[in-house]
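> forwarded from #structure-qc
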């Protein structure tokens, strides 16, 4: 969905995935910059993609582990290429990451390797909507309504009632968090 939104708005996007089939899926949707974190040259690919797109702002659905740190390090590599002289405090380039999910519930690990020009915060939809005001929220809602079957379309592995969602089999299945296998919970049969 983010790939489609960015394409419509002319925003360069760097996608980080963990498997080669996810690379193919996003490229088929039109993504130009898809890097696979399981590849040996991941850091070089990520740095090249950031260099090309100037992507110094990112959204992370994983949350735990080293992904935010890796993104900040790649951003800083690119920023330092533009520096006229060395600074032990790193570049002045602002780097920003937002965690909006916790696919990995382990701690988010940050290392002191990208200077002081970075910000990490959480991002949730409803607090964001409350902060943008009624007019902006109205425009956003209208955009979603106008593009519900295209840009904002979703597909689901299955539709289940709330009661079915709580069965052992369903819990074990949706907890695996596989790409393209969302459940849609309906409160009725």
């Amino acid at each position: 969905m983010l790939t489609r939104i960015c394409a419509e708005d002319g925003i360069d996007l760097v996608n980080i995935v963990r498997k080669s089939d996810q690379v193919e899926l996003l490229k088929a949707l039109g993504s130009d910059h898809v890097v696979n974190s399981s590849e040996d040259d991941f850091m070089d690919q990520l740095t090249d993609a950031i260099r090309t797109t100037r992507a110094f702002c990112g959204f992370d659905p994983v949350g735990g582990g080293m992904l935010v740190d890796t993104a900040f390090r790649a951003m800083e590599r690119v920023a330092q290429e533009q520096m006229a002289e060395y600074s032990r405090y790193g570049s002045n380039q602002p780097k920003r990451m937002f965690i909006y999910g916790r696919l990995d519930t382990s701690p988010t690990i940050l290392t002191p390797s990208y200077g002081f020009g970075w910000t990490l915060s959480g991002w949730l939809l409803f607090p964001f909507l409350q902060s943008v005001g009624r007019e902006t929220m109205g425009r956003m809602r209208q955009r979603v309504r106008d593009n519900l079957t295209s840009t904002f379309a979703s597909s689901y592995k299955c539709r289940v009632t709330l009661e079915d969602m709580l069965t052992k089999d369903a819990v074990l299945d949706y907890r695996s968090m596989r790409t393209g296998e969302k459940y849609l919970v309906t409160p009725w049969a």
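QC bot note: The helical segments are 2-9, 20-28, 42-53, 67-81, 125-132, 134-146, 162-165, 168-174. The beta strands are 14-17, 33-36, 57-60, 63-65, 95-99, 104-108, 118-122, 158-161, 183-186.
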